[in-house]
Amino acid sequence: MAELHILGHLNCAQHFTEGYSLYCRYTIQAGPNWTLLTGCTEGQTSTGWPKLVFHVNCLDSLERSWVVGYGCTSLPTVPGYHTIRVPCWLPAATSISDSLRQYFLGGSHQITQNDIISLGNDRFKLSTQSKGCIEIKICIILRNFTQFGVEYK
């Protein structure tokens, strides 16, 4: 069996304007040709090479939590150590009342279908705003790929 090993860590989140504590939730998404041997078994799948999907959240002084950015990146297809910057976005407020509510009460519009983040099929229908970015440092190890006819350079 060809194996893909992913080792890494989230290095930092930058340029988010929220002045609260940020935390990040991530999911590894893989297509039907991949089998997860260890680690978290939850998540959604998509076709093709595995991706990392991020939800950046903030926690304010009243212990309220909400999403402040979404991001997605495909994993590198070559072995080695990589630094990846993932730009994040958020659905924009669509009315003045939404903007005022967000400013005074906090919170944001949230995605109800996570496939929009990784696949982007219907993302063109959304009005979005750029947010900060996430920097991850990751090491990709490919094992037994050439034995199964998969070449990489």
Shape: elongated
- Structural class comes to mainly beta
Residues in β-strands, percent? 35-45%
Order of helices and strands: EEEEEHHE
Alpha-carbon distance between the two ends: 20 Å
Average residue pLDDT: 78
Q: Would you identify the regions where 5 or more consecutive residues have pLDDT less than 50?
A: 41-47
**Count of β-strands:** 6
* Cα-based radius of gyration, to the nearest Å: 18 Å
Total helical segments: 2
Plain-language structure description:
This protein has 153 residues and is mainly β. The chain is 9% helix and 44% strand. It has two helices and six strands, in the order E-E-E-E-E-H-H-E. A three-stranded antiparallel beta sheet has the order 1-6-5, with no helix packed on it. It has a three-stranded antiparallel beta sheet with strand order 2-3-4, with no helix packed on it. A hairpin with a 5-residue loop joins strand 3 and strand 4 (65-74).
Task: Provide key terms for this protein.
3-stranded antiparallel β-sheet; 153 residues; single chain; mainly beta; 6 strands; elongated
List the helices and strands and how they pair.
Elements: E1 3-14, E2 21-29, E3 51-59, E4 65-74, E5 80-91, H1 96-105, H2 115-118, E6 128-143
Antiparallel strand pairs: 1-6, 2-3, 3-4, 5-6
Can you describe this structure in just a few lines?
The chain is mainly β and 153 residues long. It has helices at 96-105, 115-118; strands at 3-14, 21-29, 51-59, 65-74, 80-91, 128-143.
